[in-house]
């Protein structure tokens, strides 16, 4: 249903998990407006005053985060290089957090996940797309994993995840194990294996190739790293 807001005051409004695709804004004031979308580069162009700004945003993010541009590599050697870049990036961020005041890892900024919760979610992402989809492990999830909001609303089994809040040391251990798991898999993967179709855990009727599953892991890593750095900057400020 098409809706029109004319002369509406939406200053300070916050839209979370909302569908604004195809929205048209005319003669609007947008100073200070922020858009965060992990799917920004997967859909239609985003035009501001007639200019598709997506290529500009993508290039700027690649500049800010060296190694990000490698995330869509299509061969084993490229994927290994892309993962090595991610490991270096996260290692530097972990060092930064270690030097910050105690308790920083549990601080939530604007209702978003804390740093520890972000790492826990990446454990779940690896379990979903590597252990579950690619390796076809029957029970892929580590109980320390942090499910996203859609996981609960879509009716998935939350019993696989612990209701206890783990220590940061436990989070780091689980995270390091999953990072090493991806590294070890990429060390042996062949071009042929990258083309194998895998069961999509969220949409079984739409299978994904092994390569696509690995790309999803890479995207999850870079997007959540960007969120984490954004919030660490806010905490530092």
Automatic annotation (TrEMBL):
It comes from Paractinoplanes rishiriensis. This is DinB-like domain-containing protein. The lineage of its organism: Bacteria, Bacillati, Actinomycetota, Actinomycetes, Micromonosporales. Pfam families: DinB_2 (PF12867), Pentapeptide (PF00805). Residues 85-227 form the DinB-like domain. InterPro entries: 5peptide_repeat, DinB-like, DinB/YfiT-like.
């Amino acid at each position: 249903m098409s809706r029109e807001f004319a002369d509406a005051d939406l200053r300070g409004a916050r839209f979370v998990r909302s569908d604004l695709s195809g929205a048209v804004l005319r003669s609007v004031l947008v100073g200070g407006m922020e858009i965060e979308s992990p799917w920004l580069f997967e859909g239609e162009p985003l035009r501001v005053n007639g200019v598709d700004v997506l290529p500009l945003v993508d290039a700027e993010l690649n500049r800010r985060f060296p190694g990000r541009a490698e995330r869509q590599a299509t061969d084993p050697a490229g994927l290994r290089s892309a993962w090595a870049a991610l490991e270096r990036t996260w290692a530097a961020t972990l060092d930064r957090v270690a030097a910050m005041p105690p308790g920083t890892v549990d601080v939530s900024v604007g209702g978003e996940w804390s740093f520890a919760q972000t790492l826990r979610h990446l454990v779940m992402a690896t379990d979903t797309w590597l252990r579950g989809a690619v390796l076809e492990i029957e029970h892929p999830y580590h109980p320390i994993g942090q499910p996203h909001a859609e996981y609960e609303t879509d009716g998935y089994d939350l019993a696989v995840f612990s209701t206890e809040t783990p220590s940061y040391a436990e989070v780091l251990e689980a995270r390091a194990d999953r990072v090493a798991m991806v590294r070890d898999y990429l060390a042996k993967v062949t071009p042929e294996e990258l083309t194998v179709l895998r069961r999509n855990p969220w949409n079984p009727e739409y299978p994904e190739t092994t390569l696509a599953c690995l790309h999803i892991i890479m995207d999850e890593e870079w997007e959540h790293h960007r969120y984490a750095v954004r919030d660490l900057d806010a905490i530092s400020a």
